[in-house]
Amino acid sequence: MKRLFLLSGAVLMILMPLSSIAQNAKARNPVIFSDVPDMSMIRVEDTYYMSSTTMHMNPGLPLMKSKDLINWELIGYAHKALADMDELNLNHGKNTYGRGSWASSLRYHKGVYYVSTFAQTTGKTYIYMTKDIEKGPWEVKEFKPMMHDHTLFFEDDKAYMIWGSGQLHIVELLPDFSGIKPETQHVLIDNATLPSTPNGTRGGLPAEGSQLFKVNGKYYLFNISWPPGGMRTVIVHRADQLMGPYEGRVMLQDKGVAQGGLIESTHGEWYAYLFQDHGAVGRIPFLVPVQWKDDWPILGIDGKVPQELNLPASKGLVPGIVNSDNFSRKKGEIKLPLVWQWNHNPVDTLWSVTEREGYLRLKTGRIDTNFLQARNTLTQRTIGPACSASIAIEVAKMKDGDFAGLSLLQKNYGIVGVQSVGNQKYLVMVNASTGSLKEFAKIPLDQQRVYLKAACDFRDKRDVANFFFSLDGEKWISIGTSLKMSYTLPHFMGYRFGLFNYATKNTGGYVDIDFFDYKDK
Questions:
Q1: CB atoms within 10 A of CB 111
Q2: What are phi and psi of 420, to 5 degrees?
Q3: Of 140, 230, 289, 430, whose CB is crowded by the most CB atoms within 10 A?
Q4: How many C-beta atoms lie closer than 10 Å to residue 459's C-beta?
Q5: What are the backbone dihedrals phi and psi of residue 348, each rounded to the nearest 5 degrees, phi first?
Q6: With the CA atoms of 252, 258, 259 and 263 taken in that order, what torsion angle do they form, in degrees rounded to the nearest 10?
Q7: What Pfam families does this protein map onto (predicted)?
């Protein structure tokens, strides 16, 4: 009887119009199962825009758009290079892993889009401005001091920034955004952490990540804290005047989902956009319904983050956030789609998608002995719950000492690649999960084209990756050991697939990568 019931249900599903099934599908949290932290969000008419953090990546300060708050696509970056300096260029043994540009603030005011950020690497605050967020051009103003986790806020014709950790400050900006207006800085909230630590407990993460909103004449300041022994917590302070006084409350403590702000949908519904630390894949965005009660935004359903949302279902992160690439370019197309970012500033003379049509060529230009210091590693985010990427690489023009292939980039990285030693090439798997690299496989390679693959499993925070090679593109063979991926604060970023080639003895060699094939499982 049960079998007949199941069969009948299957028949009903087959007979049901696909449009009905699609209409019944709903969005689920997380809304983006990938490293898109420190979101700032606005809506302009019927389009939502979002900025995020990618720190040491180039180009930086990614911008995305959506029509439904769920399905997002990259539309550009605010900057091509934060600055020209050794730390950002991976020169002289220096780097800026875990630093670069951090949490941004995205705003729209009188026909102009503003996105601001700050950088520990340079010690500066940056404001990027444009009238066309998708096409630019962007004008930039930069100044000191560096305002940590700030929020940009417009009141009439004046612009302000609120920033800090624990003790929050406010300052008015100069009309041309070139710096702060003298003698306007003062303490806005002396101890913004207090609502989450009423007993005055010290330690943990003080309130930071400020984002300010004005709703129905009142001011709402969102912050995150992490009380000792607790979890990431959303704190909201409310005031009748911009300068206060502010009254604060804990508004959400569930699943560690916190840090973000408010967005009103085109249908008049309110949501809080927040994120969760989710292990090796990174910090992933959630949407939490908001109801207003006594002029307070009440987050969640009975204080909990729901799994299901009354929004359209996700169509997946391919091609909006990540994508495959065959490296073939039509006339007028950009050389690298927006899904790609370089690890630190690239050397543009050492890569090409035009020297050999349909291939990405990566050339060596200096001697390096450390993968994390090697320039021109081209990256894309990993995505959950599971994903894989494979490449075809041609290695005939490698020189003695060259190492090229496919990586999973984080401090504790993993690599499957080709190493050139004298006149012999080897397939090599390197595992740095313990914090120091160890070679776990070295197999002689007697052909000039080989296929490499890395597969990630983030389900239930397993955070395990495995590596493979193929000699014909059909039969895959496991190589080396499993990589236990771990999110480390020195890199402060989820694992990324990376394409690389660097020299350890002689410069001038190169490899050609035929394709990058991304699979979302």
A1: 7
A2: -100, 120
A3: 430
A4: 12
A5: -65, -25
A6: -70
A7: GH43_C2 (PF17851), Glyco_hydro_43 (PF04616)
